[in-house]
Amino acid sequence: MLLAACAALIVGAVAIWGKSSGHSVNAVPLQATLVPTKLRADGRAMAVLTINNNSDAKPLISFADNVHSAAIERMERTDGQWRATIRAGVLPGRIGLRIESADHRTATSELTTYLDESDRAQDGTPDFARLDDDRDRQAFRRWFTYLAEAQYFEPATRRPAEINDCAALIRYAYREALKRHDSKWANAAQLSVIPALDPVEKYQYPLTPLRAALFRTKPGPFRASDLSDGTFLQFADAQTLWRFNTHFVSRDLSRAQQGDLLFFRQDAEHVTFHSMIYLGESQVRPDGERYVLYHTGPTGRDPGEIRRLTLDELRRFPQNEWRPMAANPGFLGVYRWNIF
Known about the structure:
It is built from 6 helices and 18 strands. By secondary structure, the chain is of the alpha+beta class. A hairpin with an 8-residue loop joins strand 15 (271-281) and strand 16.
């Protein structure tokens, strides 16, 4: 009698466990095959997860760890199988996959992504940081220029304290343009208006192997050792932005695109570099004019200010050395970010 009672309790417990777990103890095993199991973490490489679940019900796929190292692009059913396309992110790591489907036992798989060390331009910018498609480039340009221009319209007391010269304004807008623009970010940004702009999809700052250190500070092509030896830092002055983080486009201002930079070098008492952001048409107060934006930097006790000039105003600037003209030896030209 006692043995029979114990057996009944065990059977009951198993039945309850099967019901609570969502799967019968007699559920059919779920077959899932991942090909390949290793991908370069370049933001583009793809793997395909094939799932046989004998059902039209879409399986549920979740990442057990390193959730920023990959993303599910799409899932479709063909030839009686479900196929999920998984895209590698830019963060290397081991990613546990959990595959669930009604009336099937849960299956698991594992994907490994490894560091992309390539630098196709040999300019020191890793390829994983480059924005490869036009949509991401346009998203970055719009966020970068909007965030910089918005600071011009904000009271000085509401601006981030870090914005104290021309390079600081650029660093701020560059970093913030690459972030995830969710409600938490919006609260921290404290801008009067948050635009409904598309995000950069390839990655969000600081979720890359560079972490918070966005700006290259030394010459040479990219090497994996650059990630840990101080080659990349959070700080970069105007000269560093010019030398290691951008590339020359033209000394003709008509070649500038939204988000490009203008650089100047003055060799008076000592060499100084200055940078401006080419906004193109304003996104804050559109009026058909094209603008540049810059921070003057401090002078003595004067903290300086953010200025927004039309191209005509800049071409007629009182001091010739700040005019963006090919005849001006102090004008280095129009430069474009290396991530393009």
